[in-house]
Amino acid sequence: MCVRDRTRFKGGYAKASKEDRGCALPGHITEERSANTRRPTIAVGTRVRVRAAANLRVAPFCDAKVADVLERGETVTVMAAFGSWYEVGRNGRALGFVGASLLAGAKGR
Question: φ, ψ for residue 90 (rounded to 5)?
Answer without folding.
Answer: -140, 145
